[in-house]
Amino acid sequence: MGIVVVEVCDGNAITTVNIEEIIESEFPEVAVLMNECLSFCGLCRVKPYALVNNRRIFGNTPEECLDKVRKAIKEELAVYQ
Q1: What is the pLDDT of residue 40?
Q2: What b/e sequence results for 26-36 when a residue is b if at least 16 CB atoms lie within 10 Å of its CB, and e otherwise?
Q3: CB within 10 Å: which end of the chain, N or C, has fewer?
Q4: 48 forms bridges with which residues in the sheet?
Q5: Are 76 and 53 in contact (CB under 8 A)?
Q6: pLDDT digits (tens), the chain, 81 positions
Q7: Residue 27 belongs to what domain range?
Q8: Distance CA 47, CA 28 (A)
Q9: What pLDDT, on the 0 to 100 scale, is given for residue 2?
Q10: What single-letter DSSP state applies at residue 13?
Q11: Dihedral angle of Cα 77, 54, 8, 81, to the nearest 10 degrees
Q12: Spatial distance between the Cα atoms of 30 and 46, rounded to a whole number of angstroms
């Protein structure tokens, strides 16, 4: 498992991009976990989001959210460098 964990609800709009493959190929030290539900009821339908080490990251589009997830990952990894 990675030192940074990205959790994604499989019902969320961010899954329209292959976030698991994209993130894990760009950041080998990151684990992407696809979950059936992250218990933020209704949030999946409102905006694309993911959890990066339990911090909610939002975007207006899946692509914007993916960019923000990348930025959050870089911030988390900076702690370990």
Answers
A1: 65
A2: ebeebbbeeee
A3: C
A4: none
A5: yes
A6: 458 999 998 888 888 899 999 999 999 999 999 988 776 667 777 889 999 999 999 999 999 999 999 999 999 999 877
A7: 4-79
A8: 27
A9: 58
A10: G
A11: 0
A12: 26
pLDDT at residue number 41: 63
Asked if residue 11 lies in contact with residue 37, where contact means CB atoms within 8 angstroms, the answer is yes
What is the domain count for the chain? 1
- C-alpha span between 79 and 48 (Å, rounded): 26
Q: Are 38 and 9 in contact (CB under 8 A)?
A: yes
Across 1-81, the runs of DSSP E, i.e. the strands, are 4-9, 30-35, 49-52, 55-58
Burial class (CB in 10 A: 0-12, 13-18, 19+), 25: exposed
- Residue-level pLDDT at 1: 45
